[in-house]
Design goal:
Blueprint lengths: L9 E5 L4 H12 L3 E6 L2 H10 L4 E5 L5 H15 L4 E4 L15 H29 L2 E7 L11 H21 L4 E7 L17 H10 L10 E3 L6
Amino acid sequence: MKFGELEGKTVFITGASSGIGYTQAEAFLEQGASVFGIDLDETGLQNLKQAYPETFSFWIADVRIQEEIAESIRVALKEFVRIDIIIHSAGNLDDDGTTLDTKEELWDEVFQTNVKSIYYATNLILPHMLKWEKGIIINTVSSAGTASGNGGAAYTASKHAIIGYTKQLSFDYSDKGIRANVICLGALKPERNERKNASNGEPGNVTLFMASDAADDIHGAVIPAESLIV
């Protein structure tokens, strides 16, 4: 499927080196968009750079650290001038434990990676989007964001938090040209991080649609793709 309006747009993607983030980056690159990816794992980023040397750039960054996200955004804006679309796909699993089994350190680690990283990047890029009076924010969750049983206490709580945060973004900024939504992509298996590309193209296709003009009237929604298991 071709979305001509995405050609020439700049997309900022966290967790772009593997799994869903890699698939999303590749999907936008195939549409002619420019993509700036960040991740701690350089391998997948280098693969994308080799395949799309003119339109893909990256920065090695830890999404848990605000200064590293800020630096990556500075580099992205210097190279591409603007960021039209933010996609948050970086994430961390817990050990599927109950709340009594979850140590505070693990809880903090999961929330720092899954939730606070989105807060960091959004607050750094959103002011630019508000100046441009246009921007798209797409946050990626698993089915743990709408139900229980697909993760432990920390992971499930973090994914619910992402949905609530996105809905509030939409409430606060939809009348200022910002379109914020969530893609719910089903249960994520731990081995997803070992894959450099998700075998199913569904994450990319759903994300392309949500970034396209066809989804212009969709705000604060949770778009399910529950059949996807990656």
